[in-house]
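Comment thread on ticket #2218

A.B. wrote:
> Attaching the input chain for the structure job we discussed in standup.
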Amino acid sequence: MQIVLGLAFILFFSGFCLCVAACTRYDAAALALSTLCGAVVVLYLLGLLNLLQFGRFAIFAILLAGAVYFGVRAGARAIRQAACSPGFLLFVGGACFVWVLFGILQPMFTQWDEFTAWGLAPKMVAERSAFYVADPINLTASFTYPATSLVSYLFQRAPGQFSEWQCLAALDILALACLAPAAALPRKNWAHSVLIFAAGFLLPFFFSVVPAGTRSTVYCNAMADTPLAMLFGGTLCLYFAVGGRKTGFLSCALPLAVLTMTKDIGFAYALIAVFLIGLDQLFGTAHPARRSRGRMFAVALGKAAVLAVPVLAVFLSWNRYTAAVTPTADTAASVGSEGLSYGAVLAGGIRQLLGIGREERFAAILSAMGQAFLHRRVCLLGAPVVAVGCIVLIYLAAGLAAPKGAPRRRVIAGFAGAAFCFSALYAFHLILYFYNFSEAEGLALKDFERYIAPYLQGWMLAGFCVLGITVAQGSGLPHRLGSAALALGSAAVLAIFAWRGVPAAGFWSDADSVYTLRRDVKQRAEQMNEVLNWNDRVLIISQGDDATRWYYYKYELTAKVVNGYGGTWWGNDDYSSRWDSDFMNLVESLNWELYDFQAVCTDESLTAYMEEKRIDYLLIDRADDYLEREFSDRFEGGLTAGMPATLYRFEGRNRTIAFTPVVTAESGVAP
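C.D. wrote:
> Ran it. Output below, let me know if you need it in another format.
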């Protein structure tokens, strides 16, 4: 039933795009992204007012009223003509395919960041129909931005419930909507549309560093990296598809707003997109012959300023909202452990880039960034320099195929502007590595691929779009050469993916073995949740765990999971050898060969910690010989090393039997 309802919504959504396209003569493929982003913006505005649940009905009403109004005005004949758009048909077919496939395979989250942030946030939004930043219970995802959560919420079919596969499918449908404008070419160029759509679909695999033969999470994860890259490139593609019309640039306003709320760096990406659009308005758009250069500059600047308004509005409103509702005293924006302002960080970084007062660590990170550009792998072919080389070839082919005048200037200005912005973004991440990371993380360029690859991916997608448009505009030999270059580029992406990028399991396969632990923890947690509620505080002990099961429980339990401690503590007033941790393994001495993460703990220190942190329940997921030997006397019924997962109620530190069993969950997975 959920598959059928989802397909009905996709077709309903597509019908609205068709009716609007038939009435306005826009390509329906170009309207898919604007419409989807418009729905997300409506949810965002109502979410700020705590009316998120009403938002879904408001969107349905808007889509229905709009479809009827524009459909009646356009007529059946115009609607049939609009339905022949190659890019639109590719989007609708791809969206239905993804929804049905995910509905059958039911993929689940697998990455730690999904359980602590990017998957936890949409789950909380779906279950509570409200934003998550002020949640006082079990949410550590308050730093995430709301775009992916709102896209997921739009496609969740059961109010108050959350399905992981629906979240994953929703984000993939967003990615397909970003590809649709790139394929929005005239009907006679349908083959080119197919090539661009296929190449764009494979770009996330192309910019993957997963070794061949291992499991890929591309299109099967809730992280914001792929949506960030797709929205950046898709917004530029949307502009290229409709920007030639007098007010066509305004269609980019809603995607720019969603791009801003995708990730913290999304604000910078949105401003870069605004800059590139303004640059194209100045150099790549045909102007009346009588218009002076000053007037052209003023018009381009004005249009860019108009597009910057939703970017700034979303950025400022979200930060004001989080500052107002987050239950912390310190809400000032700062960077790094020193708490420097963004302005101070930027000014200090620029000074050091210029060699003024450059510190030794900054020089070391600068050298590492230079080496990474040449040698650090960010795509299937290797380092960023290789990816930039591929992009140069795409733009070179577009420049050769483009007719003289504004189309050729668009290619040149677009490439030059994007290259300049990439250099600035690269320098920006260099500054962040110095100010916002520890010394070890900064020198190692932690998550370098995740920071650099999204820009390169969006840039390459925009390059394919520009190449397709120039080919459609050209004629004669340049047209044939451009067509050959487009076919060769798309074939190269496919060949490289087949050669080095095909994983053993991806979004198209079940990969059931990956979810063994997930399902085990989920089964246990469901039984615990029968007695737990969001106000309960639970400490989880899973002996031998490497934090995987702990994070799974933190995601699954409907209670506040309390962090443990590390080091040595005997339950007294001496905290000098105890430090804050997240999960904990209990040991009798600091024997690092036993577990990587551990806390020296006795029955006295355990009960003292339970009392200190006001913990209501103790969940023993997996016990061992140490627990059986040293802790059994404090537990009703005792403990055994091979016991099933058991939830205990904490009766008090001074009680002889401090823990009484509440729920026991058998499992088919061996401890």
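A.B. wrote:
> Thanks. Noting for the ticket: Residues 74 and 464 are 32 Å apart (CA to CA).
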